[in-house]
What does this fold into?
Amino acid sequence: MDSSVRAVLSDLEVRTPRGRLTYALITLALLLLALVVVVPFIYAFTSGLKTSREVFSTTFQLFPTVANWDNYGQAWAYFNLPRLFLNTTFMVTGGLFVQLSVSMLAAYSLSKLKPIGGRFLLIGFLTTLMIPGIAYIIPLYVTAARLGLLGSYWGLWLSYGVNAFMIFILKNFFDGLPPEIFDSARVDGASALQIFSHIVLPLSLPILIVLSILTFVNLWKDFLWPYLMLLGNPELQPISVALFVVEQRSATPPNIQMAGYFMAMLPPLIIAIVMQRYMQRGLSLGAVKG
Amino acid sequence: MMALPLRKERADASDIPHHRNRINWREQFVAYLFLLPALAAFAVFAWWPILNSIVMSFQQVDLMDAGASVWVGFRNYERMFADPTFAASWRNSFEFAGLSILIGFFIPVLVAVLVNEMRAAKSFFRIVYFLPSVIPPLIGILVWQLIYSPQPGGLLNQVVIGLGGTRAGWLQDAALVKPSILVIMTWGGFGATMLIYLAALQDLPIELYEAAEIDGAHPWDRVRFITMPYLRPTMLVLLIVQILGIVQIFMEPLVLTEGGPGQATMTPVFTLYRKGFLNGDYGLAAAWSVLLMIVLGALSLVYLRVTRAVQQ
It folds into this structure.
């Protein structure tokens, strides 16, 4: 439903011969770019199907003569992918839960419970957005080591509780909720916790879903911090970390590597595509209403 | 049912200004109880490490026992500045930043303007260009490693040779390695950046185009005098975001080049990682951290200033 809106060229101009040519050229350029963008995915997929001789061929040959689906089975077992997917899911889900809970509670307090010095605290939270975490990863690692948090998911989960951006978004969202709801609930004798669980939580479900998708994808991509935290405990490593460790330690045949990498990329790709559809449905619903 | 008590509460609330100074400690206790998890998490995993990096930068650090660390004054800073890797790392950051403006900065603007022109399949392009942004960067880098491979199977060399060129060491040649890395980064990031430009373009009133068309402005002039000036503030903000990202380059040197060839891809974060985790020299690494925090913090301040100026 995003068609028929003019941009630089008007609809009339697009229909002239010159306009048609311009439009065709733009489409062609964008399609070519799309092809270039997906080449690494296709290359990973087809290299994963090649024999160990084909994968070292000097000449350009995108597809193998015969598809060796066997490689995918081998890579699945070689990298122990089920285990890696499970680890990543476990790490990400726990981190997501901690991050959402911590941020929700803090944002609710800052927005509705009027703590003394709340503005000061908010600034304190937001300051951490000014300094990317990678800049202080050394002292962070030292702190985690001294607290005995290395080598377990707990250290990761707890540290994922830090997300000032999420507190900020949620606080703004709570600020926008009509104050009458809270006033009347308080008059009815509801406690802060009851208001939180019975009113705030259900009302913020849509924004929580959006934030969850965002956080899920971001935590799934995390590499350096889980790498450092789980260096001593390979069985727990999430997928990026484990694939890097294997790549560093052993000479894996390229076709098996590519089969493994392709399978590793699939879950986030699928989530992105599915969520995109979901978002588009939301957009078109809004368009119908408008 | 709630209308009545609500109105009553409102009436009572008008009395509150008289008692503004009275603090309800019970309510304050509850408010801080809700804040407690965040305060604890930020204290342990953000505020303290940030402060501690300054402390550690003046120490010879014992990883497990803070009490066993030794104060060394400015030794770590002296060692940092004396290290030839220091100049190389920051020079590389500048070169990466400069090159990335040439290679990666204008692509998302251009693509957004073109996608915005499409009458159909807009969402198709949006999804496809965005796909590299959702996969873990590390896995993308591992795939690109094989694309750039100097061995017979390397895709890029196959294509170049097929087109009549000669084999190149994309990651081994000092002249090629920076652009090669920036291509990976652009591939991984331009789709997300393009979405921001597209969103900005959605807000551009089409009446401007219509008026320009009536005045007989050529489409190219409409792009030049309407689209581009309209996008300029967004471009300025995203330029700073891009530089912030460039200063943090780490995974590509780690996986692909180990800082080489020579020191062509040594970066501040990669050096910091090597000093800290490979050499166990946490005090020296902390000095690198402090400098990095100053640089990134300053860039963030510029970012804030610019966003605020843009919004006004």
